């Protein structure tokens, strides 16, 4: 709400003027150091012995403790309307900035700005340093600025028209909104993932994203905007704490993500963490440049170390490390660019001053990709494990997919096989006959079915016992299966002493020949169980016809059963039936 009021205050101050007008004062300015912090505005206006330094193309002094006075001439021939103007200082982390309008040696007006000024006391309630210039600025010859900052000093001094200020401000808010929106999405998503899976990797990554977000929030003045009326807050110092914490979380995340086991490498990473903790303590106590430089150097060292670790892991065959490697390569490139821009060694522009913001966005995106890839890998591993467990009937020890697939095939075979005769069982037959009927109907071919029943089997069981009966069933099954020579033929135990054969693409004549071979071999086979000879015979019913949509599997079995019943009237016979016809004995 306060941010909205700040923007509205600019709108209320606006007048109908030409848009996109600004007056850049920096290149014509000059500055002087006040090492002892003792100069006043009167000294600046009247003393002739001060050593003024001409501002070069960029006004960046790096890390400073000194007070700096800046003198900026206001040209008379500028095109900005003289009845309005907003002064803008591009560095919103300046602690104290006293701004004076002067005409020659006469002081016209002044204002106190910077992050040591409470938000409620500011003219324009924004964390950025703006000043709505008074009317007398049209008579001013110079703008004098007294600056005190305990961090990196760089700034540009610009007088803007209200529409220009509004346009630039809205553009900045759009960029900040996109940046913090992206960080918030990554933070919330990975936090929810952590709450679901309880994996420390996601906790460390969430902490890293959070600290990076708070660092940039501090650098953008958001803590000052919301907290300056509560207590004095040096946001440029808070940012060092978040840099330290971000590096610690980053090291923990990479160590856990890549499962680093090398003892020497682990010792080096732990040393880095302890060193960052020391930097955190120093910054809390000393709050000076030493800890800032210390943290910056350690950040670069950490980025280089992690880049080496991730690239080494990637080249070693860990595909999950590729996104991590790319992420920290981006950070290794962007961080020095930002640091060199702050210290004035390279030009300051929208790209160099936002290099870390751009690099962090890409880095966090790549880290999210690495976590997403890990989720995919874990999901695939979970599916493989589930498949292996199913194939091994719940076996607790299974590491290879091939072994589990073999176990599952055995399980499937057992579920389809009759345990006594080792033939396919009735359930398998019921599934197979539907497929064969459909295939025969598509091809227009004939399908034959043989239903067999052992003669006087109950008598064998009653007189010789069930062991003798089982022996006869197994012997018949062996003879039965030997006579089915084609791989497409299916031999099944239908139940009790009944057996069934499915002969695809087989006409009646061929089916009768197979049936007669089975009957004849059983009749000629001399069975003997525990010294007792058994005369075993079989009756067979045959059905052979072209498949159609009207006949269901049960109709085929019923027709074969009728033929079998007819064969059982004389026993040791083969009888056949066709669709709609009465059964009759085969004449083979």
Describe the structure.
- The chain is of the alpha+beta class.
- The protein has 3 domains: 2-166, Immunoglobulin-like (Sandwich); 199-380; 423-585, Reverse transcriptase/Diguanylate cyclase domain (Alpha-Beta Plaits).
- Helix content is 52%, strand content 17%.
- The chain contains 16 helices and 20 strands.
- It has helices spanning 2-13, 41-46, 162-197, 200-219, 222-227, 235-257, 263-286, 289-315, 321-343, 355-391, 401-416, 426-443, 457-464, 466-482, 508-524, 553-568; strands at 22-24, 30-34, 53-54, 60-63, 67-73, 86-89, 96-103, 106-113, 129-132, 142-148, 152-154, 157-160, 446-454, 490-495, 498-504, 527-529, 532-534, 538-546, 574-577, 584-585.
- Strands 3-2-5-10-7-8 form a 6-stranded antiparallel beta sheet. A 6-stranded mixed beta sheet has the order 14-15-13-18-19-20, with helices on both faces.
- Helix 16 links the parallel strand 18 (538-546) and strand 19 (574-577).
- Helix 4 packs antiparallel against helix 6, helix 7 packs antiparallel against helix 8 and helix 8 runs antiparallel to helix 9.
Low-pLDDT sequence parts: 1-20
Number of domains: 3
Roughly how many Å apart are the termini?
Answer: 101 Å
Rounded mean pLDDT is 76
| Beta-strand fraction estimate | 15-25%
Shape: rod-shaped
Helicity range: 40-55%
Number of helices: 16
Q: Going across the major beta sheet, what is the strand order? A: 3-2-5-10-7-8
Instruction: Provide the structure class.
Output: alpha+beta
Number of strands: 20
């Amino acid at each position: 709400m306060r941010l909205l009021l700040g923007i509205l205050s600019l709108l209320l101050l606006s007048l109908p003027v030409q848009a996109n007008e600004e007056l850049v004062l920096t290149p014509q300015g000059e500055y002087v150091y006040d090492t002892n912090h003792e100069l006043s505005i009167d000294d600046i206006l009247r003393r002739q012995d001060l050593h003024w330094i001409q501002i070069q193309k960029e006004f960046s002094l790096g890390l400073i403790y000194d007070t700096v006075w800046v003198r900026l001439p206001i040209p008379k021939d500028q095109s900005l309307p003289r009845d309005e103007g907003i002064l803008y200082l591009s560095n919103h982390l300046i602690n104290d900035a006293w701004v004076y309008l002067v005409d020659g040696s006469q002081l016209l007006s002044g204002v106190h700005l910077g992050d040591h000024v409470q938000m409620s006391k500011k003219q324009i309630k924004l964390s950025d340093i703006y000043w709505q210039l008074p009317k007398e600025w049209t008579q001013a010859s110079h703008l004098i600025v007294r600056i005190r900052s305990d961090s990196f000093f760089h700034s540009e001094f610009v007088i803007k028209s209200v529409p220009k200020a509004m346009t630039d401000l809205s553009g900045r808010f759009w960029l900040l909104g996109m940046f913090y929106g992206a960080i918030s999405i990554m933070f919330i998503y990975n936090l929810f993932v952590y709450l679901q899976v309880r994996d420390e990797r996601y906790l460390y990554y969430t902490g890293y994203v959070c600290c990076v977000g708070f660092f940039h929030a501090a650098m953008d003045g958001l803590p000052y905007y919301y907290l300056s009326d509560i207590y004095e807050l040096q946001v440029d110092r808070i940012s060092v704490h978040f840099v330290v914490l971000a590096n610690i979380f980053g090291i923990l995340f990479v160590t856990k993500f890549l499962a680093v086991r090398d003892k020497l490498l682990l010792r080096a990473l732990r040393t880095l963490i302890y060193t960052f903790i020391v930097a955190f303590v120093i910054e809390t106590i000393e709050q000076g440049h030493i800890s800032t430089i210390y943290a910056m150097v350690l950040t670069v060292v950490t980025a280089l170390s992690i880049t080496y670790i991730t690239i080494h892991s990637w080249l070693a065959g860990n595909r999950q490390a590729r996104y991590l490697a790319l992420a920290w390569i981006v950070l290794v490139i962007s961080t020095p660019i930002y640091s060199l821009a702050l210290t004035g060694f390279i030009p300051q522009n929208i790209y160099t001053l936002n290099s870390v913001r751009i690099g962090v966005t890409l880095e966090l995106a790549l880290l999210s990709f690495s976590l997403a890839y890990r989720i995919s890998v874990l999901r695939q591993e979970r599916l493989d494990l589930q498949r292996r467990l199913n194939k091994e009937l719940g076996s607790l020890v299974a590491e290879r997919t091939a072994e589990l697939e073999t176990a599952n095939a055995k399980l499937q075979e057992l579920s389809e096989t009759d345990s006594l005769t080792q033939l396919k069982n009735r359930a398998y037959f019921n599934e197979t006959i539907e497929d064969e009927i459909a295939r025969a109907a598509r091809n227009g071919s004939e399908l034959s079915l043989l239903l067999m029943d052992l003669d006087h089997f109950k008598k064998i069981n009653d007189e010789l016992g069930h062991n003798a009966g089982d022996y006869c069933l197994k012997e018949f099954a062996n003879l039965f299966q030997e006579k089915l020579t084609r791989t497409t033929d299916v031999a099944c135990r239908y139940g009790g002493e009944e057996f069934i054969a499915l002969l695809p693409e087989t006409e009646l004549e061929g089916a009768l020949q197979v049936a007669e071979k089975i009957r004849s071999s059983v009749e000629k086979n001399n069975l003997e169980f525990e010294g007792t000879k058994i005369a075993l015979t079989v009756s067979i019913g045959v059905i052979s016809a072209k498949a159609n949509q009207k006949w269901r599997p049960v109709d085929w079995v019923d027709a074969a059963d009728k033929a079998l019943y007819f064969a059982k009237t004389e026993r040791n016979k083969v009888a056949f039936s066709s669709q709609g016809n009465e059964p009759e004995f085969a004449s083979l």
